[in-house]
Amino acid sequence: MILVCIDRQKANGTARNIFTPTSISMKSLGELPKDTCFEVTPPKVSQKSIDIYKKYINVGINGGYDPKPSDMAIYKKYASFK
């Protein structure tokens, strides 16, 4: 059983809560993983996501990259506005 809280506001600005017991039947949409506290299945990560993360880590180790010419063109256009 689930209690549903409904706020009712009267015309004079006062509010009161009404708790209504409601029964809801719930159906599982899928199966939970078979993980336990002793064994956990690692998530599947795409190679593209791994490459993005490696690039992110390398920025912290080796410093940033030079901007692409297209990025510089956008910046120059932005900087020209006064």
Could you explain the architecture of this structure?
With 82 residues, this protein is α+β, with helices and mostly antiparallel strands. Helices cover 33% and strands 20% of the residues. The chain contains two helices and two strands. It has helices spanning 47-62, 69-79; strands at 2-9, 15-22. A two-stranded antiparallel sheet has the order 1-2. Strand 1 and strand 2 (15-22) form a beta hairpin. It is flat and about 65 Å long.
Distance between the termini: 63 Å
Radius of gyration: 28 Å
Shape: flat
Q: How many beta-strand runs? A: 2
Unreliable spans: none
Q: Find the structural class using helix and strand composition.
A: alpha+beta
Mean pLDDT: 80
Major sheet characteristics: 2 strands, antiparallel
* Number of alpha- plus pi-helical segments: 2
Share in β-strands: 15-25%
Helix-strand topology string: EEHH
* Strands in their spatial order, largest beta sheet: 1-2
Q: Percent helix among the residues?
A: 25-40%
Q: Which characteristics define this entry?
A:
alpha+beta; two-stranded antiparallel ribbon; 82 residues
Write a brief caption for the model.
It contains two helices and two strands. It is an alpha+beta fold and 82 residues long.
